[in-house]
Request: fold
Amino acid sequence: MDTDLRIKESLKKLAPITLEEMKSIRLMNRTDTKFVTSKEKLAELLELAVGKYYAQYTSGSKIASYKTTYWDTDDHHFYMDHHNGRAPRQKVRVRTYMDSGVTFLEVKTKNNHGRTKKKRVSVPGQGQIQGEADFLYERARCTTSDIHETVQNNFHRITLVNYGKTERLTIDFDVRFHNFETGRDAGTGQLVIVELKRDGNVFSPILDILRQLRIKPSGFSKYCIGSVMTNPGLKHNLFKPKLVRISRLIGERLAIAE
Reply:
């Protein structure tokens, strides 16, 4: 059985949870941890999660589609802050939940303690943020004239919730990038990005599964990796070792744009 089919078959065995039911989950003391792995390992993870996790069910499917466009300044201020390890740092993005058609302008802020906060406002669609100058200035100290669209991605997401409803697990895969500045496209192949969001240090069934599968924590920014894979003009020396490690992990080369 091929990997994509194994993923779909395992998802069928996971009890469904609706978006409305998800609203009852309030992670007040949330910690976030990212992991990277391959689709083959994801198939194993889902098989081991049966009986321990719900899978979010939206618009008739347990796999959701997302489109995100990142905005940055002409000198790539937000990208460079991340590359250089500065904190606090921010990202400005517009995300569309493709199954519902709902779109939000979001400002993500990561503080000196590694905590991430997200503020968002509904907008009509991708590229339509002109009416949100006040929101942008208040949250990111920039205006719509200071920033432009840089990198867009499309990906699929599975969301799991443990039976105790103390954690959420987002699993992103089939990530494709398009760079508005260079016109280049790239993809991440078999790469899977897992993010665990849990309430403090409560028991987490998925951590045992991740350890069993030897899936280790690893930071990953879709914006930064998508940028270095599609824009050869960006400084990228601090991201190169990460791309090399990920390439070895998934068994295929993720290349920096040249």
Observations:
- The chain has a mean pLDDT of 93.
- The longest helix spans residues 3-13.
- The chain has one domain: 3-250.
